[in-house]
Each structure stands twice: as structure tokens, then as C-alpha cells.
């Protein structure tokens, strides 16, 4: 009788171990895919090759109900890539990532890695993938769109024959939306890319750094402010130039529209205001307009890309450091932000353009107005 119960218990254990394997082998599981298209695990396909669950669990995967695979894992021979290593089985993107064009990825790109549990919805592209590849199109930060893209696009077309079409400068927010909707080939940001933004794109690349300048009228004797003083001015806590050694006159702060999705507004708020709200402002459509108005207003002040400097304004030192290359690279001058290209398709002509922007010729274009990344 004791032998009977031992046998029965053994059979029950075998049945319990086999049940999950058989159940999973009949399922097709979906995972987020880090913004590159949903990853589909085809249980029946693996079962048809003779695999059972225990072949991978727990020797390759821990018995936890989650899947988090980094881009680095793709090349380490771990997790799925124990087999999907280009030797045993293909490692092409389209083999696992559905709705994603299979092509080799350039090492140029940083690949999106969505926060755990965030499964990006499939993108219904406004244009076909072929239309996004030629002519190439751009929307986004005016800093990138007006100061880098025209010359870079001309040189790239001269080398490759790949034409560029429309290049908008409606702002970083508009660029992110246009890329996420599949309306343009690439977009431009002029601030550090956030986790939320990463989840909306597939890849991004920093191509340089923009130095932000603080501009005043030449008649204003103030020539240097600290970060704390800038915070007091732009938050509205200090409203008279007399507090900073200037004339007894109200401070007039000019800014791009706060609701316009402009990267400058966000970057300055992150770096200087550190969570504080802006105070009273004169809001204008574009940074160029802000600088032009300060050139006419002895009481004016504005912050924008240093590339928009014009005759008739003075650029202030910040924390005692001038916005010069050495001070920017050493960190003595604190107001800088990355210039970033983003895309849904890190392949083909788009990949080639991103690679070009990191080439010596592409970096020369960046260095004419900004600090290059290389």
C-alpha cells in the first residue's frame, strides 16, 4: 500500500510538471518589445521543433512572470539569444519583433527600452516605410532644424543621392508627435530625452550639445548672474534689476510660448527653475523673436540657444563662467543641453543619415554653431 501511494504521488508530480509545459506550448505570448514592435513568442512553433518548456525554464530563464531583455543581451548569448545567435537561429529584428522592418541596426543608435510593464501600442504610420525613407523629412526643435539640418541635408544628398523633403521647425514637442505618428522620417530634440519620450520612439542619437545663453540689452550693466539669481528672476521672485546691481527698473522676461512644446522652455525649466513655475513673462512664438525684442528693450532678459545671438545683445556669464567651449566641456558653464535626433526606423537611408551626422564631416556642421559630440 505504501508503494502504491509513492507511485501515485510520483505520477501526480509528473502531471503537474507537464501541465504548464503543454499549456504554454499551445500559446502565443506577446511582450512589449522595448518600442521596436511587439515581440511574439510562438509556442506552437517552438513545440514543433521538439522543444518543451523545461528546455528553457529554468536553465535559461528564471521562473518569474516577467520578461525584461536589454539591447546588450542581444549580443551576450543569454536569454533568447542562447539560441537566437545568428548561428543556431536568426537574430534579425523582424524574426521576433512584429511590425518592425528587419534590417541590421547601426551601432550609432541608442535603442529604446520601455519601462517595465509598458507595452507600446502598434503604430499606424501616416506614411509607408518606403515613403519615410525617401525623401527624408524632419520636424522638431528649431535649434536643430534651422542651424544644422539645411547644410547637413545638402551634404548628405551630395554624397548619397538621397533627397530631403520638408524640414519643419515647429518645436521638439511637434517633432516627437510627428515621429511617433509616422509622419516624418526623423525628429529633433534639444533636451535630454526622457523615459516617456524613449517609449514613443525606436532609436535616438545625440549629435552635439547646444549652449544656452542668457541675453540682456547692452545698456544693462549686469554682466554675470548665478544659477540661483536666474531662478529668482525667471520664477518671478525678483522683479527689479536693482537687486542685481542694475538700474532701478522692472525686469521684463521674454520667453517662447510655455505651451508651445519648445525644448528651450523645458530645458531651462529643468536646469534653472528645478521644478519651480515660470513667473510673469512676455511670451513670443520663437526664440529669435525673444532675442530681437531684448535688443530693443533695456529692461529685457531672455534665455535661448547661443546660436541665436545677434548684434545688439549681451551674453551674460553664469556662475562666473562665459559660455565658451572650454568652460562648457569642463562643466564650469552649466547651461548646455544635448541635441538629439529620433526616429521610428533605424534602418536604410535614415540609419545612413544618423551615421553621417557622427562622421567628421557631419560633426563639422554641428561645430559651426554648437559643441560637437566627438
Automatic annotation (TrEMBL):
Domain Cytochrome c7-like: 39-98
SUPFAM superfamilies attached to this UniProt entry: Multiheme cytochromes, Periplasmic binding protein-like II
Annotated CDD domains: PBP2_phosphate_like_1
Keyword Cell cycle in annotation: no
Protein name: Phosphate binding protein (Modular protein)
Keywords: Signal
Endpoints of the signal sequence: 1-23
Species of provenance: uncultured Desulfovibrio sp
PBP domain mapped to chain residues: 135-361
InterPro entries given in the database record: Cyt_c7-like (IPR029467), Multihaem_cyt_sf (IPR036280), PBP_domain (IPR024370), Phosphate_ABC_transporter (IPR050811)
